[in-house]
């Protein structure tokens, strides 16, 4: 089966299931839930970082790429998890954080101690540039007592690696071979479009300096080297690159098969349509016209140029899409299905973030005390410094914090939602008694809907392989597209609002069949009225 027919499920290990009652999720917990994932029908599970790490950025600050974080378990636990997954026909994708390492990594420590070899592993300069770290503040920090500075595009405990050094590349390629030898079948590469820094680094006032280090031409060369030296030798491997602040043009280059870089890319433009002036720590209702334009641009251009998208609404860095795009007080279930259809029937490989399949919501915390993410804490302080009241700053954090999606998985309505028997590392969401796996499996319909979508992708080549064209691009409420493959077509219509709207269906689909939808459809008529958040796919 090709990656076009597969569906990938993301697990945030800290928050999936705690089996040794320390309040933190672990590998045996993930192993235990393999039958649940099999029931859902996903093909591959992406684990956010499980490696040794001081956890300043929840594991995205890696201190040893080939050691398991003891909080999560042992290497034996990992091997057991792999075996249990494979038994269910599920493959494992690991998260490779190759742009930077924790400053606790042996390489950085040796560099600090004065070893020249390891100093060349990092990006050291006599003068910092004006670039702003993605987690706030300047992107350079003093390198010990040397008077020099090291680059950290993220937290100051995450030092950027010098990919121009062939020894660094070989170290990283070795890491990939290590995990491939264990049977890992997929890699998700963290912010991989930032690895190629220019030789001479220049100030850049635009967008906090992003254009100076993002999507640089040499990044493509590095990816080709990595592909050739490692996963490119195994046609079953699946690779996805997380692309920060990228363009469709670049993502076509990253994913066009004949370039031999990656299979697909994540981009975040569609999840910035509720950012005021492009700034995350603001609040604004989502801009539907912009969302559509982005989906259509990426959908058609990737389709025309043989690129491939990773399709997603949620991950561990994003507040829950339900809270952002749907009137959840009235239409949580219909809305969850509509959002799911909008991407699962599109051209690309769909990702499900844990809890999405049961319609989990943001936790609805009532105090700053409950937030733990370094990014949220920094942003809160910056909002106060900029003159916001505590209340106003809190409201913004509440809407935007990455902790929103990192709350423990809601398995049942027990005290700690079946995640643990002790207080978890991050407070459980307020809705856990109402929204949980046990209840969803018993009486819910969102999980079933996801099951159906996953099956359809495998049954209908037009879903996995068809082309993409926009449908009613100017409509103020509908996001729609047509997929085509040989003599078959699929029309997908999604009403993104709580108001009904009437449209004209194209002639060619009047004789078609409804493949899936969130309301019963009696007749496909030329004049068709869509209910609140209605989604419907017609196959002809
Ligand atoms: O995220 C990359 C990234 O660009 C994020 O910082 C994103 O912009 C931010 O979360 C939105 O507010 C990746 C990982 O997914 C994230 O968890 C890590 O913190 C980051 O890289 C550093 O490794
Ligand atoms: Ca645990």
Keywords:
binds calcium ion; alpha/beta; TIM Barrel; eight-stranded parallel beta sheet
What does this structure look like?
The structure is a single chain. By secondary structure, this protein is an alpha/beta fold. It folds into 3 domains: 8-98 and 166-366 and 405-456, Glycosidases (TIM Barrel, Alpha-Beta Barrel); 107-151, no CATH class; 465-539, Immunoglobulin-like (Sandwich). Helices cover 31% and strands 17% of the residues. The protein contains 17 helices and 22 strands. It has helices at 27-32, 34-40, 75-87, 106-112, 116-119, 166-181, 217-229, 248-255, 288-304, 321-325, 328-344, 374-385, 390-400, 403-406, 437-443, 446-459, 461-465, and strands at 8-11, 44-47, 51-52, 64-68, 91-96, 100-102, 124-125, 140-142, 149-151, 158-160, 186-189, 238-242, 264-266, 310-311, 349-353, 467-471, 478-485, 488-495, 501-504, 513-517, 527-530, 535-539. The strands form 6 sheets. It has an 8-stranded parallel beta sheet. A hairpin with a 2-residue loop joins strand 17 (478-485) and strand 18 (488-495). Helix 12 runs antiparallel to helix 13. The longest helix has 17 residues, at 288-304. The mean pLDDT is 98. Residues 10-406 form the Glycosyl hydrolase family 13 catalytic domain. It comes from Enterococcus xiangfangensis. Belongs to the glycosyl hydrolase 13 family.
